[in-house]
Amino acid sequence: MSGVHPAWLGGLGGGAGLGDDVVLTRDPLCGLEAEAYTIARSGGVTTVVAADEAGLMYGSFHALRLDGELAAQTHRPFVARRMVQHWDNVFVHPVMGQVERGYSGGSLFWEDGALTDDLDRVGDYARLLASVGINAVSLNNVNVHAGEARLLTDRLSEVAALAARFRQYHIRVYLSVSFAAPMVLGGLDTADPADERVKAWWAAATQRVYATIPDFGGYVVKADSEGQPGPFAYGRTHADGANVLAAALAPFGGEVYWRAFVYNHRQDWRDRSTDRARAAYDHFTPLDGEFAANVVLQVKHGPIDFQPREPVSPVLLSMPRTSLAVEFQATQEYTGQQRHVCYLPPMWSSVLSTVAGAVDAVVTVSNAGDDRYWTNHPLAQANLYAAGRLAWDPALDPIALLDEWIGLTFPPAAAGVVHELMRDSWAVYEGYTSPLGVGFMVHPGDHYGPDVDGYEYSRWGTYHFADRDGVGVDRTRATGTGFTGQYPQPLADEYESLDTCPDELLLFFHHVPYTHVLHSGKTVIQHIYDTHFQGAAAVAEMVGRWAALPPETVGEDLHARVADRLREQVRSANEWRDQINTYFHRKSGIPDAQGRRIY
Ligand code: GCW
């Protein structure tokens, strides 16, 4: 690297991080692909070789993680596109706040309706993302409000300023745009993708973007979803809609991330024939092969909406002629809102083990904000960390990644406690919240805390159908909504049959009596009682473990922050336990076999 001083090298901590014992060689003829690197360490000297500067950067971050000798290894990203998406608003939204479903304070990018004046913090964030392999970031909420729509046009200089910081770490910047932008911003009377004026507007707007930001990544679009405008208004398909934006971006190498999160959010709860789980597949699989080459269809990992437990979305297994992105949610909307410890990578890893061969991109909704620990709950950082690392290599063991993060973050004296707190935290969370894959027993609107019937008679299409005899959603082909038929074999039959449906997804696919016996040997009702008592008890234990760790081991402020969040987690877990158990006890009339306290 003689004579080359890229910003990321300084960002690695200068001499302190990457010392003279690291030799970086950029060799365009070394035969490695873009972003790949070879790393070795022997006799105390680390060598990194890459064909491009991005590869050298990733290798340098790897060098910082190394401890001990290493025979030469080559690392290359599993997918070329590894994106973090923000649901940040420029202005504070009256209902959603500044960051929609954000639990870490305000936006890192905007403050008081203007670009942040702390661009150095944005640079730190860029380094943080690059260090785990992220190479793309979208800056604003997929629900694009009027003020935010203007980032595409007269507020473009703010995007350019942010892009400059991300560029230093080889991260490309994307914008969420409104499908109605030609009307909202361009004064046209239509956004019909077949209209020549609409095509011309997108082409001109996109050209202006690239004139300002030559390495701009592209657009993210939420269309015909939860009130956002889309092509259905004009009788056009989502391929028609996506392809117009794709055509505008193609000359510059840009891409459209088009979300598959399209469903009827004005459903009648009385109508048992409509199944929200079916929606994405029904809308999108008929369009396989019709999307332009630079459209990436972005699919939430489960068929409903980031619940603590869902099966993998069948869309990810059914569109071989479409570029696909799997979307994960690091922001813990339904998984404790960064007040509860919930280490999610074991969930993501199991999804990736099913879909890795089918996806071209991994997208994670960021959990970071302007909080001093980035993520409110300091332990929630691990989710962002592992999201990047898994996008780079989905085969990595999520628990090994947890230990990697712990090793880079905490002194050895704290490592064991943090590991114990986090390792099973997803299972613990699932235990005291939603049983057997049923989902959505949350407080409507803010989605925090239990409210078993909160969504039961609502328009959102998320029901559990509990009555005095049983609970769960019949999604079978034989007697239900037929959703199981959207899966390829063997999954279609595995989920269809009570004999083979995994316990943890039972109520997602089947409506069963409370006395139904699980593969575990327990009845459904006893499972509900047991997991809720055990889950809440496990949280109480976590509090004790953390309290036993001397505050100075991790710093008093951080220790107090975690302790405070754990107190809330205990309170909330007890509330979940008591409401869920009481609800099902009252419905079923079946007592707990162990006679524990139910209200
Ligand atoms: O889970 C739902 C959230 C919305 C979000 C939407 C989406 C950004 O409650 O807040 O909107 O998903 O993913 O588009």
From TrEMBL:
InterPro entries: A-glucoronidase_C_sf, GH, Glyco_hydro_67_C, Glyco_hydro_67_cat, Hex-like_dom2. One of its GO terms (cellular component) is extracellular region. Residues 73-367 form the Glycosyl hydrolase family 67 catalytic domain. One of its GO terms (biological process) is xylan catabolic process. One of its GO terms (molecular function) is xylan alpha-1,2-glucuronosidase activity. Keywords: Hydrolase. Residues 375-596 form the Glycosyl hydrolase family 67 C-terminal domain. It comes from the Bacteria. Gene3D superfamilies: Alpha-glucuronidase, C-terminal domain, Glycosidases. This is Xylan alpha-(1->2)-glucuronosidase.
